[in-house]
Amino acid sequence: MTKDDPCAEAMNQVHAFLHGELSEEAADEIREHLIACEHCVDSYDVEACIDTLLKRCAQVEISAPVSLRVRITQMVVRGSGPANSF
Ligand SMILES: [Zn+2]
Q: HSE of 52 in the Cβ direction (CA atoms, 13 Å)?
């Protein structure tokens, strides 16, 4: 395993992530990366990813603050409305 390419790392684990097969710690890393990295988001099924992210956020509120959900939602709807809807 190499940390030289975090995108490759994320892509390798993203399916396990989507299936909920990763540990909380590993899943958190992938989630953080996907939120921060548009390249990865563009590289595969964004809707499936976001859907999973939101579901997991809803299930694990402790590790998914409102700001995170807002950022995910903004990522989904970017360019199609005002960012501040609160
Ligand atoms: Zn990436």
A: 19
Look at the block and give the residue holding tokens 């395993």: 1
Q: How far, in Å, from the CA of 42 to the mean position of ligand 1?
A: 9
Q: Rounded CA gap, 83 and 74, in Å?
A: 6
**Along the chain (86 residues), what's the average pLDDT of each consecutive run of 10 residues?**
75 82 89 82 65 65 63 69 49
Q: Which residues keep their CB under 5 angstroms from ion ligand 1?
A: 7, 37, 39-40
Residue showing tokens 């694990």: 60
Phi and psi at 44, nearest 5°, equal: -155, -170
What is 34-49 written as a DSSP string? HHH-HHHHHHS-HHHH
Supply the pTM of this predicted model: 0.47
